[in-house]
């Protein structure tokens, strides 16, 4: 797909913020903005299994647009999918158990199990449903806001593939790191190669910005993060961008979200990512100082503030925007995904407050 195949973009605030250009107000979107806190999403989920929605472009489009239709204050859409579509493309079975989350009936146990993964993955074919959903959604958006694509990062995906689902201490995947380092690197590299092709495919299909989720980054010590996460997320941004350039595709902004990896902030700001997404444990002033204006910062309100009073939400938003403090290089978001039991009315209050305060602060 080429840019001319899509309706012209009417709101490019988030793209400008990501590129370090000034914005007249701070752009905002919410991780997991299409999800169970919305009654209209729960209604679709009653009729369809989670991965059926992901695999049916018309349903993925419908659900991606739900928060955009409800909140005209959102400045980006993110394609409805999941990070676990990559393990599925590699040949592992993944199911989504209601109320429990992802479950792998046969996770990887020892390195010998890597033989169960496809030796080469035809990304174009195995993940075509995501690409179709992106193209369909980009058209249906009619240029209202940019469409974001995403992928899980290699370490987070490896951990899911070995733990078989959520886990408190990741001891199974860490066993691999400490007993089978060579095979661990082999698996991480295999994931990296697929992720790169997948992300390029998303841009080809119409994604206008990309986010990489290293949701389990903070489970690693700084040293292990340098060994098992950093080299791969670094490869992803450089190789995605060089491939986009070679294929004459738009070189879209890229965001890295390493939850819990506060120690890596400075290092991350020297990679070729445009945006670093922060969790709520990081002080905005510290983050600005350490990253020295080299990247745009995104985040970082504690998702649980949305359970607070209207006053508390407004007070927190105001403090956050003032601390990140400029009309440049800042995108408002939560520090992690929105929780399923949040009241959609509080989301409205949050978004409207971001607009109001973001405009005021930009004028200063
Ligand atoms: O942000 C969006 O609105 C786009 C869609 C999106 C989903 N998952 C939909 C989803 C995105 C970007 C993700 C990413 C994702 N998936 C991550 C990285 C972000 C993060 O939260 O750290 C991870 C770790 C996953 C894996 C995953 N998927 C888990 C752990 C769970 C269960 C926890 C939960 O919130 O239920 C899911 C399920 C999931 N992915 C749901 C949605 C809307 C809810 C499942 C349902 O409807 O039954």
From TrEMBL:
Keywords: Cytoplasm, Decarboxylase, Heme biosynthesis, Lyase, Porphyrin biosynthesis. The keyword tRNA processing does not apply. It comes from the Eukaryota. Residues 27-36, 148-164 form the Uroporphyrinogen decarboxylase (URO-D) domain. InterPro entries: UROD/MetE-like_sf, Uroporphyrinogen_deCO2ase_HemE, Uroporphyrinogen_deCOase. Transmembrane segments: none annotated. NCBIfam families: hemE. Catalyzes the sequential decarboxylation of four acetate groups of uroporphyrinogen-III (octacarboxyporphyrin) to yield coproporphyrinogen-III (tetracarboxyporphyrin) with the formation of intermediate hepta-, hexa- and penta-carboxylate porphyrinogens in the heme biosynthesis pathway. Acts on a number of porphyrinogens, but only coproporphyrinogen III can ultimately be converted to heme. This is Uroporphyrinogen decarboxylase. It comes from Paraglomus brasilianum.
